[in-house]
Amino acid sequence: MKIPNTVYLILAIISFLIFVDSLFDKGSSHELLFWNANIWIYRLFRLAVALLFFKIYFDKRRTIKTIRTK
């Protein structure tokens, strides 16, 4: 299944916004994959997900550009 490039960008932006929102959370723990985790572990997880989607987006964009220039 081929996922459009913009879907990765949208997922990256949403994940990054969730990460930023977690910075304003006053709690010391948050539920992560059905377990209570330290808030900093949760924030690192959200940041990693956002960075992963950004990386996929830019990699796909770069390959599309190189295919078009050939």
Account of the 3D structure:
The chain is mainly alpha-helical and 70 residues long. It has one domain (5-68). The protein is 71% helix and 11% strand. It has a two-stranded antiparallel sheet. Helix 1 runs antiparallel to helix 2 (39-69). It starts with a helix and ends with a helix.
Summarize this, please?
The protein is mainly alpha-helical and 70 residues long. The chain is 71% helix and 11% strand. The chain has a two-stranded antiparallel ribbon.
Which keywords apply here?
70 residues; mainly alpha; two-stranded antiparallel sheet; 71% helix; 11% strand; transmembrane
Principal-axes geometry comes out as elongated
How are the strands ordered across the major sheet? Answer: 1-2
How far is the N terminus from the C terminus?
25 Å
Helix share bin: over 70%
What's the SSE pattern?
A: HEEH
Q: How many helical stretches?
A: 2
Say how many strands there are.
Answer: 2
The total tally of domains equals 1
What percentage of amino acids are in beta strands?
5-15%
Largest sheet: number of strands, sense, barrel closure? 2 strands, antiparallel
Low-confidence stretches: none
Q: Cα-atom Rg, whole angstroms?
A: 15 Å
Look at the helices and sheets and give the structural class.
mainly alpha
Overall pLDDT score: 86
